[in-house]
């Protein structure tokens, strides 16, 4: 059985939690996949999700929202638009045209790489990193590295879901993490 | 980079924001886009036709002497004033992903907060009163434009994905590439029969991808009301591949 941990309850969180679908054994045996597509099918719950982030970051002088391909592209732009920040896509290799910088990171088996456009983010800019979920934190960590390498300040990482048992929070080099929902195997 | 503070007055909000005085593309564009002259999309009636870039320009041009008529024509024909900035914010990268292809890079548009907001607003204004229940966005750049539109018009957002990305039950549609084929997938149950759907992507080239998306939606009984893209490459004639569905775009690439 599994459960979503109850936090302080902004009343919108319950609606959000119940809309996330868990798909067992995807992409492989043993993984309980957190599927946010069902959240996107509920316009109120999707809007509430965005509003919760926007309320947190509006007026905090955030210049950049960096979203991680591909599900970070769903949550990042609405937040960016609402708070008046640029949106910067962080992508798998060879997707971004023109000059990029790359950051490699470790997977369970093997490595992967995240890329960002040269010139998209400037030194001194205040950035958020957005993804749908944090698991081990490897991808978020690579994203933060890219931003810091060009001299941006990563203010916070923001995800809809955290899998706390995978301790991704600890991999973020002290950067704060804000999530709406935690998923625990009970 | 020069920046200035301006007040944007739009129908949705009046908030102060900072924007670059010049959209500051990362590389100079090698092409300038002609301002959109999209073909009319007769399925959708617009309450304020001047809002959008539908071609109200008549092919019969008035004589130069008839200035009052021209003035009236000009105000009806006015391109939406937001379009030039959107157009110039798009960066063209030559020979990507391979020689001969002039890649239309929308990431520079996303760096211009006003132009990005205007892009979304132009679509939202067109669709908000059309009873759209589904916005289907094609992976991955359709994920950037689709959700803000869906949120603003109160529609579901449905991601149309490459194979093996969506968990659970999916339906698939194969489509042709220049060399070989690819597949697009949609979740079973995401869209219901009778849903009124938009398909969103950043760009239409040959139309193969959009066509696959249309087919997936129609297979579950949805009605595809329109396809909407930021950019069209008209020479590739993608518009003709949409099985008769209308296409709305903001800018056309030469």
Automatic annotation (TrEMBL), chain A:
List where this protein forms a coiled coil: none
Q: Which UniProt keywords apply?
A: Cytoplasm, Glycosyltransferase, Purine salvage, Transferase
The top EC class is transferase
Q: Where is the Phosphoribosyltransferase domain?
A: 43-168
Q: So what does this thing catalyse?
A: AMP + diphosphate = 5-phospho-alpha-D-ribose 1-diphosphate + adenine
CDD domains per the record? PRTases_typeI
Q: What is a GO molecular function of this protein? A: adenine phosphoribosyltransferase activity
User: What's its EC?
Assistant: 2.4.2.7
The metabolic or biological pathway listed in the UniProt record of this protein is:
Purine metabolism; AMP biosynthesis via salvage pathway; AMP from adenine: step 1/1
Q: Where is the signal peptide?
A: none
The record's comment on protein family reads: Belongs to the purine/pyrimidine phosphoribosyltransferase family.
Subunit structure as annotated in this protein's UniProt entry: Homodimer.
Q: What is this protein called?
A: adenine phosphoribosyltransferase
> What is the taxonomic lineage of the source species?
Eukaryota, Viridiplantae, Streptophyta, Embryophyta, Tracheophyta
TrEMBL record, chain B:
Give the Gene Ontology MF terms in alphabetical order. adenine phosphoribosyltransferase activity
Q: Name one Pfam family in it.
A: Pribosyltran
Subcellular compartments: Cytoplasm
Q: Which CDD domains match?
A: PRTases_typeI
Phosphoribosyltransferase domain location is 114-237
NCBIfam families documented for this protein: apt, PRK02304.1-3, PRK02304.1-5
- Give the matching PANTHER family: ADENINE PHOSPHORIBOSYLTRANSFERASE, ADENINE PHOSPHORIBOSYLTRANSFERASE 1, CHLOROPLASTIC
Give the main EC class. Answer: transferase
- Key words, A-Z: Cytoplasm, Glycosyltransferase, Purine salvage, Transferase
Question: What family classification does the UniProt entry report for this protein?
Answer: Belongs to the purine/pyrimidine phosphoribosyltransferase family.
* Protein name per the record: adenine phosphoribosyltransferase
Q: What does the record give as EC number?
A: 2.4.2.7
Q: What is the annotated quaternary arrangement, including any partners?
A: Homodimer.
């Amino acid at each position: 059985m599994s459960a979503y941990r109850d936090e302080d309850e902004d009343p919108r969180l319950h609606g959000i939690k119940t809309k996330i679908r868990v798909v067992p054994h995807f992409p492989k045996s043993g993984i309980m996949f957190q599927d946010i597509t069902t959240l996107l099918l509920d316009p109120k719950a999707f809007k509430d999700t965005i509003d919760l982030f926007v309320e947190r970051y509006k007026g905090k002088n955030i210049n950049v929202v960096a979203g991680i391909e591909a599900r970070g592209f769903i949550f990042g732009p609405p937040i960016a638009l609402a708070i008046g920040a640029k949106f910067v896509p962080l992508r798998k290799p060879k997707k971004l045209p023109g000059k990029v910088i790359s950051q490699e990171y470790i997977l369970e088996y093997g490595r992967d790489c995240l890329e960002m456009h040269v010139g998209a983010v400037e030194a001194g800019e205040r950035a958020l990193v957005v993804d749908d979920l944090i698991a081990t934190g490897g991808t978020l960590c690579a994203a933060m590295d890219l931003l810091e390498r060009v001299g941006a300040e990563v203010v916070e990482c923001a995800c809809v879901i955290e899998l706390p048992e995978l301790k991704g929070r600890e991999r973020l080099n002290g950067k704060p993490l804000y999530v709406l929902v935690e998923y625990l195997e009970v | 980079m020069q920046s200035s503070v301006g007040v944007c007055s739009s129908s949705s909000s009046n908030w102060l924001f900072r924007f670059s005085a010049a959209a500051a593309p990362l590389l100079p564009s090698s092409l300038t886009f002609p301002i959109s002259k999209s073909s009319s999309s007769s399925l959708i009636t617009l309450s304020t036709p001047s809002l959008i870039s539908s071609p109200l320009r008549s092919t019969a041009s008035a004589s130069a002497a008839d200035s009052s008529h021209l003035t009236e024509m000009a105000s009806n024909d006015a391109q939406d004033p937001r379009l030039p900035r959107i157009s110039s914010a798009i960066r063209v990268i030559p020979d990507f992903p391979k020689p001969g292809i002039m890649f239309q890079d929308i990431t520079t548009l996303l760096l211009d907060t006003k132009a990005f907001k205007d892009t979304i607003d132009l679509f939202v204004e067109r669709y908000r009163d059309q009873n759209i229940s589904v916005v289907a966005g094609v992976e991955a750049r359709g994920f950037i434009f689709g959700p803000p539109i869906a949120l603003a018009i109160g529609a579901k957002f449905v991601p149309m994905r490459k194979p093996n990305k969506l968990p659970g039950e999916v339906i698939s549609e194969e489509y042709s590439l220049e060399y070989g084929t690819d597949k697009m997938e949609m979740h079973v149950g995401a869209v219901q029969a009778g849903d009124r759907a938009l398909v969103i992507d950043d760009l239409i080239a040959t139309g193969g991808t959009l066509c696959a998306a249309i087919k997936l939606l129609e297979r579950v009984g949805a009605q595809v009301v329109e396809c909407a893209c930021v950019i069209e490459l008209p020479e590739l004639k993608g518009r003709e591949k949409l099985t008769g569905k209308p296409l709305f775009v903001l800018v056309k690439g030469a």
